[in-house]
C-alpha cells in the first residue's frame, strides 16, 4: 500500500504514518494504543506491526502477555521473518530458574535496544505496556522509553546517525490510575483510544506533533483476517445488533381481526385527498370571495313531541 | 454440570475447547454455582483436574458434586483430582515442618510475597505422567477463589503473575484450561480487586459474570448471567460476542431464560 493512494487513505496516514512517516515526524515517535476489555486492541497492534514490516523496517516485539505462536498467528511468512520476538511470556520473572529466561527481564531487553548498532529504521512493539507498568516503577519505565525513542538524536561514536525508532505500546486503560497514564501520554506522540458502537470499532486518535496544533480525530475501522486495516466512513447499518437469535422476530401484524393494509385504490384515494387546512390558491380565492348563490349554513331542526315551542324568551322577566 | 449452561456456551464435555482461560466473576450475588458447574464438567470430560479450593471444605464440594453426578472422593482416589484444601492446609504452614515450601507459604511471610510455591504445586500436580496410565484428556486448573488471596495480604500484581504462569504452563504448554473465580467488589472501592479483575479480563477467553438483579432479591429469578466471549480465534472481529440471561438455581440444576421470560411471570 503506497502513501499516494486516494483521499480515503489519508486517515490511514495520520493513524500511523503520523508516527511512521519519516518526513512528518519530529523527535518523539511513540504511539500508544489504549484499549478496554470490550474493544480489544491487540489486533490493531498486529495490524500496525504488519504495516511496519511491509515497509521494510525491522520489528522487535517485547511479548509479555501472549505466547509467540499466538502473536505470530495470522501473519504470513515474509512478515514473520522480519519480526524479532523477545519472549517474556513463558518465564518473565525467572521462576523456573533454568537459565533460559532472557537476562534482565523485559527492562533489560528494552535497555539493550537503546544500545543497538544497526542503522535502519526499527519499530518496537510493546505487548503490553500495561504489563511493564505493573511490574516496573513508572519513572524507570518512562526514562527507559524516553531513552529508546530518543536514541536517533544521539549519533554513534563515528558520527553516523542511527535510524528512526518507532515505539508502539498496548495499554489496558482500566488498569492504571491517572498519574501513570498521564506520564505515558506525555511521552507518546500519538494516542489511539479504542471504542465503538453497534458492533463497529472506532479509534480516537490524538496526535501531538511538535510545533503543530494537536489534532483529535475519530476513525471507524475494522481489521481484516490477514491483519490489514480497513477504514470505514461510519458504523455500517448491517452491524446493528440483531435480536436474540434464539427467538425469531415476530411480525405483530400477522394475526389480527381487523385490516391494517390498504388496497391500491384506497391508497390512491388517500393520497389524492386534500387536507382541510391545506390552502391551495383556488381554495384561498373561494374563501375570500364568497359567491352570493352559495347559501350560508342551514340548521335543520325537527321538534320532538315534548318540546316547548314557546317563542317567549324565558329571560324576559329578568330585571337586568 | 448444568446442561442448559452447556447449551448457552455451546460446548459439551466431549468437544470442549482447550488452551483457554475462563474468568468467573460475581457481583452482589454468589457465583459459586459456576465453580461447581465447571468442576463437574471437567471431571466428566475425563480431565486431570487440580482444584485450589480456598473457600470451602472438601466435603462441601463433594456434596454438591454428588448432586451434579460426580464423586469427588473417587476422583481423588484414582488420581483424577488433585485437591488443595486451603482451609485445612493453611494450618499446616505453621504446625508442620516442610522440606520444600508449602503452597500457601506466603501466609508466613511478613512482606507481600509471591505465589511461586503455589504455582509449583500446580505444575507438579498437572504435569503429564510418563507412564501414560489412565489417559486423562487434558489438564485443568480450577481456583476458588482469587479474591481471598488479596484479603490474605498478597498484592494484585502477585496474583496476576501467578495466573500468568498458570496460563503459560497449563494453557499454552500443556494445552489445558484454567478457570478462576474473582469477586467484583462493585460499589465498594477496592483498587487491588479492580486491578485483578480487569487484568484477568484482558487475558481471558471467556468471561461469565453473575450479577444480582438491580432491583434486589427475587424468589423466582436469582440473578443475571452475562457471557462475554473474547479473542475469538476464527475471525479477528473487533466486537466480542456477549449474551445476557437470567437464571434460577434449583436443587440439582440451574435454569436459564431470556430477560423477562421467567416462567413465573409468563
How large is the share of residues in beta strands of chain B? 15-25%
Summarize the main sheet of chain B: 9 strands, mixed
First-to-last CA distance of chain A = 98 Å
N to C succession of SSEs of chain B:
HEHEHHEHHEHHEHEEEE
Secondary-structure class of chain B = alpha/beta
CATH architecture level-2 label of chain B: 3-Layer(aba) Sandwich
| Terminal CA distance of chain B | 27 Å
How many domains, in number, for the residues of chain B? 1
Largest sheet of chain A: 9 strands, mixed
Kindly describe this structure.
The complex is a heterodimer of chains A (320) and B (266). Chain A contains ten helices and nine strands. A nine-stranded mixed sheet of chain A has the order 3-2-4-5-1-6-7-8-9, with helices on both faces. By secondary structure, chain A is α/β, with parallel strands linked by helices. In chain A, helix 5 runs parallel beside helix 7 and helix 7 runs parallel beside helix 8. In chain A, strand 8 and strand 9 form a beta hairpin. By secondary structure, chain B is α/β, with parallel strands linked by helices. Chain B has one domain: P-loop containing nucleotide triphosphate hydrolases (Rossmann fold). In chain B, strands 3-2-4-5-1-6-7-8-9 form a nine-stranded mixed sheet, with helices on both faces. The interface between A and B is medium-sized, with 35 and 30 residues. Chain B: Its main location: cytoplasm.
Amino acid at each position: 500500500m503506497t502513501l499516494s493512494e486516494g483521499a480515503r487513505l489519508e486517515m490511514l496516514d495520520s493513524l500511523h504514518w503520523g508516527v511512521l512517516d519519516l518526513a512528518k515526524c519530529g523527535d518523539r515517535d511513540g504511539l500508544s494504543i489504549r484499549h478496554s476489555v470490550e474493544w480489544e486492541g491487540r489486533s490493531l497492534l498486529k495490524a500496525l506491526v504488519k504495516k511496519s514490516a511491509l515497509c521494510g523496517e525491522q520489528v522487535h516485539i517485547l511479548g509479555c502477555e501472549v505466547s509467540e505462536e499466538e502473536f505470530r498467528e495470522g501473519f504470513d511468512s515474509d512478515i514473520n521473518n522480519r519480526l524479532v520476538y523477545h519472549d517474556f511470556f513463558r518465564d518473565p520473572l525467572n521462576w523456573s530458574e533454568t537459565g533460559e529466561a532472557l537476562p534482565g527481564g523485559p527492562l533489560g531487553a528494552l535497555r539493550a535496544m537503546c544500545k543497538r548498532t544497526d542503522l535502519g529504521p526499527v519499530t518496537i512493539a510493546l505487548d503490553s505496556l500495561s504489563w511493564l507498568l505493573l511490574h516496573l516503577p513508572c519513572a524507570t519505565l518512562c526514562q527507559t522509553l524516553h531513552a529508546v525513542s530518543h536514541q536517533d538524536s544521539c549519533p554513534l561514536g563515528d558520527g553516523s546517525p542511527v535510524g528512526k525508532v518507532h515505539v508502539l505500546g498496548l495499554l489496558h486503560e482500566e488498569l492504571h490510575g491517572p498519574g501513570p497514564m498521564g506520564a505515558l501520554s506525555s511521552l507518546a506522540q500519538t494516542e489511539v483510544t479504542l471504542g465503538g458502537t453497534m458492533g463497529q470499532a472506532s479509534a480516537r486518535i490524538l496526535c501531538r506533533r511538535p510545533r503543530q496544533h494537536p489534532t483529535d480525530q475519530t476513525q471507524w475501522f475494522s481489521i481484516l483476517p490477514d491483519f490489514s486495516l480497513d477504514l470505514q466512513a461510519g458504523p455500517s447499518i448491517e452491524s446493528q445488533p440483531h435480536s436474540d437469535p434464539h427467538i425469531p422476530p415476530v411480525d405483530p401484524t400477522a394475526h389480527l381481526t381487523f385490516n391494517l393494509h390498504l388496497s391500491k385504490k384506497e391508497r390512491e384515494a388517500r393520497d389524492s385527498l386534500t387536507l382541510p387546512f391545506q390552502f391551495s390558491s383556488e381554495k384561498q380565492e373561494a374563501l375570500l370571495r364568497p359567491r352570493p348563490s352559495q347559501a350560508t349554513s342551514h340548521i335543520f331542526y325537527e321538534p320532538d313531541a315534548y318540546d316547548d315551542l314557546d317563542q317567549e324568551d324565558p329571560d324576559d322577566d329578568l330585571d337586568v | 454440570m448444568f446442561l442448559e449452561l452447556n447449551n448457552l456456551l455451546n460446548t459439551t464435555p466431549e468437544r470442549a475447547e482447550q488452551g483457554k482461560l475462563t474468568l468467573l466473576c460475581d457481583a452482589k450475588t454468589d457465583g459459586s454455582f459456576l465453580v461447581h458447574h465447571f468442576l463437574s464438567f471437567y471431571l466428566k470430560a475425563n480431565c486431570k483436574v487440580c482444584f485450589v479450593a480456598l473457600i470451602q471444605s472438601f466435603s462441601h464440594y463433594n456434596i454438591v458434586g454428588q448432586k451434579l453426578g460426580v464423586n469427588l472422593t473417587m476422583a481423588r482416589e484414582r488420581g483424577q483430582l488433585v485437591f488443595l484444601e486451603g482451609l485445612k492446609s493453611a494450618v499446616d504452614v505453621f504446625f508442620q515442618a516442610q522440606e520444600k515450601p508449602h503452597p500457601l507459604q506466603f501466609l508466613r511471610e511478613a512482606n507481600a510475597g509471591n505465589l511461586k510455591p503455589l504455582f509449583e504445586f500446580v505444575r507438579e500436580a498437572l504435569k503429564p505422567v510418563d507412564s501414560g496410565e489412565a489417559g486423562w484428556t487434558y489438564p485443568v486448573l480450577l481456583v476458588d477463589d482469587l479474591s481471598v488471596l488479596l484479603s490474605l495480604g498478597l498484592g494484585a500484581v502477585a496474583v496476576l503473575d501467578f495466573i500468568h504462569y498458570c496460563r503459560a504452563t497449563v494453557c499454552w504448554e500443556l494445552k489445558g484450561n484454567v478457570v478462576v473465580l474473582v469477586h467484583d467488589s462493585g460499589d465498594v472501592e477496592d483498587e487491588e480487586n479492580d486491578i485483578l479483575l480487569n487484568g484477568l479480563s484482558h487475558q481471558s477467553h471467556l468471561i461469565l459474570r453473575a450479577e444480582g438483579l438491580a432491583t434486589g432479591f427475587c424468589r423466582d429469578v436469582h440473578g443475571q448471567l452475562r457471557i462475554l466471549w473474547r479473542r475469538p480465534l476464527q475471525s479477528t472481529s473487533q466486537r466480542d460476542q456477549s449474551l445476557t440471561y437470567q437464571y434460577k438455581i434449583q436443587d440439582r440444576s440451574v435454569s436459564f431464560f431470556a430477560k423477562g421470560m421467567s416462567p413465573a411471570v409468563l
